């Protein structure tokens, strides 16, 4: 079955960096656009970024543009999110997903001094 497992979250100081990973299985990753969304405490899901099947295009929410970089390695069935210049407002549970449905259990990112 479809499985998406996020990792790489943690506690980081403002201005710091984290790299999230999403290991996919149960489907042919290269056939799907992939995405990251997040949910901050007490708020709804917010789309963060998505990427074409071959990485040919990438899109970002205005709130993360210039700070976050999405990438993928189809040979490794893995999606990434490099997060730099982190801010307290980036604190959230981050989920990876694929177009058409399917999402992981999430990884917590906390940005605090």
Strand neighbour order, sheet with most strands = 2-10-9-4-5-6
- Portion of residues in beta strands equals over 45%
Shape: globular
Task: Give the helix proportion (percent range).
Answer: under 10%
DSSP strand tally: 10
What does this structure look like?
By secondary structure, this protein is mostly beta strands. The protein contains no helices and ten strands. It has a six-stranded mixed beta sheet with strand order 2-10-9-4-5-6, with no helix packed on it. Strands 1-3-8-7 form a four-stranded antiparallel beta sheet, with no helix packed on it. A hairpin with a 5-residue loop joins β4 and β5 (45-51). The mean pLDDT is 96.
Q: Topology of this structure?
A:
Layout: E1 3-7, E2 10-12, E3 18-25, E4 34-39, E5 45-51, E6 58-60, E7 68-73, E8 78-83, E9 92-98, E10 107-111
Parallel strand pairs: 2-10
Antiparallel strand pairs: 1-3, 3-8, 4-5, 4-9, 5-6, 7-8, 9-10
Q: Outline of this structure?
A:
By secondary structure, this protein is mostly beta strands.
Properties at a glance:
single chain; 113 residues; mainly beta; 6-stranded mixed beta sheet; 4-stranded antiparallel beta sheet; 0% helix
């Amino acid at each position: 079955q479809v499985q998406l497992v996020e990792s790489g979250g943690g506690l980081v100081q403002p201005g710091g960096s984290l790299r999230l990973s999403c290991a996919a299985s149960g489907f042919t990753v290269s056939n799907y656009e992939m995405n990251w969304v997040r949910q901050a405490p007490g708020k709804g899901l917010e789309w963060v970024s998505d990427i074409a099947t071959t990485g040919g295009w990438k899109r970002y929410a205005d709130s993360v543009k210039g700070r976050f970089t999405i990438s993928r390695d189809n040979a490794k069935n893995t999606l990434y999110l490099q997060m730099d210049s982190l801010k307290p407002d980036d604190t959230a549970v981050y989920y990876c997903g694929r177009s058409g449905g399917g999402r992981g259990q999430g990884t917590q990112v906390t940005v605090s001094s």
